[in-house]
Amino acid sequence: MADQNAIFQNCYYVGNNFNAILYGVELVLYFASVSIILSGKDKSNADRRFFLWFSTGLLLMITIYVAVQAVFGQEMWIVHADYAGGSGQYLADNAAVWYQTLGSAASVVLNLMSDGLLLYRCYVVWGDARIIAFPCVLYLGTLALGILTCYISGRPSADFFVGKSAQVALAYSTVVIGLNAIVSALICARILWRARQMRGVLGEDVVRTYTGAVALIVESALPYTLFGIAYVVSLGLDSPTSILFLSIYVMFTCVSPQMIVLRVLMGRAWSREAATRTRTAMRFTVPHTLDDGAGGDSAYTGTTARSGTDADLVNVNLRTFASRAGSSQRDFSDVDKV
Question: What pTM value is reported for the model?
Answer without folding.
Answer: 0.74
